[in-house]
Amino acid sequence: MDIWKFYDITHRDHVVCNPTSEEKLARLVDLLRLPIDTHVVDIACGKGEFLIRLAEAYGVRGVGIDISPFHIANAERRLKARSGSAGIIFKKMNGADFRPDEPHSLDLAACIGASWVFGGHTGTLDALIRMVKPGGWVIVGEPFWLQEPSEAYLDASGVTKEAFGSHFSNAQSGEERGLDLVHAIVSSKDDWDKYEGQQWYATVEYARARPDDPDLPEMIERVGKAREVYLRWGRDILGWAIYLFRQRPAESSSGRPLD
To answer: Are residues 182 and 174 in contact, defined by beta-carbon separation less than 8 angstroms?
Structure first.
């Protein structure tokens, strides 16, 4: 089954394609307090909700990148219906291939919940840091272990223990790279339940509407296995947070920030 078709179907009811709430996304947007004419990129932007909200709140200019043709088409429809901002575009491409016109030229670079694009959390931080100006924002969303993952969970999920760190190590990785952590928005179990449950619901509805789809047995099997893993182990083992990092300002030879 085409992976992007799978995610389009299972995430069709999601506004935000990760385990956070719209209220927490609104908090993220409010916290940024961006000036007019800010230049931004959102890597693996999904349906574009974060970028569209930035356009609505601050009139930003920027680009949303996603490899899914379904998500890009959805994002373009949402943008047209909501704001139609000429300053925002969406591109279908692998986020790892994106480069700004010049290094260290953007005011904000985000990759919320798709660190696999850059090979993990630290690779994502390194890539986004190269995109932003001194004083710019680096926004990432990343899982973390709430407790030591059991071997049963790791075997069933196909995830390795090394894939994720702790909440502290996620934050510390940014600090070690010259970023200041200014806020972390942590998902609750209710956020996770809604994120997972909407996938189960969408799959059942799709199965009733399209019983002859040849991809249906595979989709039902995959969603059923993921549901069991989540309910049996994952709900108590895996956390998730959005980390708001800020690049430290450029300094003069005296060590004082340059205006």
So the answer is: no
